[in-house]
Every structure is written in structure tokens, then in C-alpha cells.
């Protein structure tokens, strides 16, 4: 699996794609394979403030329920509502199916995350 080089990754298998002062957050291909078929995603409301490393929701599969952790601090400005009716999109396109978008409160935090090659080494 090739991981997008424009993303930053956590050891908890979330990714963030930063553009300006915003970041879109999702889970990695590795994470969705470990979970199996995703059947439900519980995401925060717009306006929720997150701290880096804080749980912001859960993802449920046929095998388990897992916490989702924010790779960066910020305020939720958008939630991918399409996942409410089609949570399986996370399996079909994990790097294209973002979960939430945040307005970053500390862009420097992304510097402490893994790049794509370091993340690929982590999961091999």
C-alpha cells in the first residue's frame, strides 16, 4: 500500500491532510483493513473543539468499536455527513473518505506527526 505523501499520520492510524489553516482527518488503509467492514461512524458536531490526541468519536465495524483520535488541535468546521448513510465508504476509499474537517489552532503540531514513509515503515 502506498500512503499519500501529502498527508501526515499518527501511530493510532489516523491521517490529516492540511490545506492552509484547515485539516481533513480520516483513517488509514491499514486501519480500515484491521477493522473489517465498517458499519457505523459516530462523529462530533460542528463547533466541537479538539485537542491533539483527544478522542473525537468512534468507528464501528463487524469486528469491533474503535476510538478515533485527533492528529491535530482545532475546531470542527465540517463533518462528512455522507458517512452516516454509507459508512462503508471508509473501506472503499480510506484516503479519500475524510471524517471531519478542523480549523487548526496550532499548525505546528503537524510537524510532530509521521510522514508517509515513516508511517509505511510503522505498519509493515
Written overview of the protein:
The chain has helices spanning 29-35, 82-85, 89-92, 116-123; strands spanning 7-9, 14-19, 22-27, 38-42, 49-50, 55-61, 65-69, 74-79, 100-104. β2 and β3 form a beta hairpin. The strands form two sheets. Strands 1-2-3-9-8-5 form a six-stranded antiparallel sheet. It is globular. The protein has four helices and nine strands, in the order βββαβββββααβα. It has one domain (7-105): RNA polymerase II/Efflux pump adaptor protein, barrel-sandwich hybrid domain (OB fold (Dihydrolipoamide Acetyltransferase, E2P), Beta Barrel).
Uncertain runs: none
Question: How far do the termini sit from each other?
Answer: 10 Å
Q: Say what the CATH topology is.
A: OB fold (Dihydrolipoamide Acetyltransferase, E2P)
What is the CATH architecture annotation? Answer: Beta Barrel
The CATH class designation is: Mainly Beta
**Whole-number count of domains:** 1
Cα-atom radius of gyration: 13 Å
**Order of strands, widest sheet:** 1-2-3-9-8-5
Helices and strands, in order, run as EEEHEEEEEHHEH
What is the count of β-strands?
Answer: 9
Structural class: alpha+beta
Strand residue percentage: 35-45%
> Rough shape?
globular
Helix content: 10-25%
Biggest sheet overview: 6 strands, antiparallel
Overall residue-averaged pLDDT value:
97
Within CATH, the superfamily carries the name RNA polymerase II/Efflux pump adaptor protein, barrel-sandwich hybrid domain
Number of helical segments? 4
**Oligomeric form:** single chain
Amino acid at each position: 500500500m502506498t500512503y499519500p505523501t501529502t498527508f501526515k499520520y499518527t501511530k493510532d492510524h489516523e491521517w490529516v491532510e492540511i490545506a492552509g489553516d484547515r485539516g481533513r482527518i480520516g483513517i488509514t488503509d491499514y486501519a480500515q483493513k484491521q477493522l473489517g467492514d465498517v458499519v457505523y461512524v459516530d462523529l462530533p458536531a460542528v463547533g466541537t473543539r479538539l485537542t491533539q490526541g483527544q478522542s473525537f468519536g468512534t468507528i464501528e465495524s463487524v469486528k469491533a468499536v474503535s476510538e478515533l483520535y485527533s492528529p491535530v488541535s482545532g475546531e470542527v468546521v465540517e463533518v462528512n455527513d455522507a458517512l452516516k448513510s454509507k459508512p462503508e465508504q471508509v473501506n472503499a476509499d480510506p484516503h479519500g473518505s475524510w471524517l471531519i474537517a478542523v480549523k487548526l489552532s496550532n499548525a505546528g503540531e503537524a510537524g510532530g506527526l509521521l510522514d508517509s514513509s515513516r508511517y509505511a515503515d510503522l505498519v509493515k
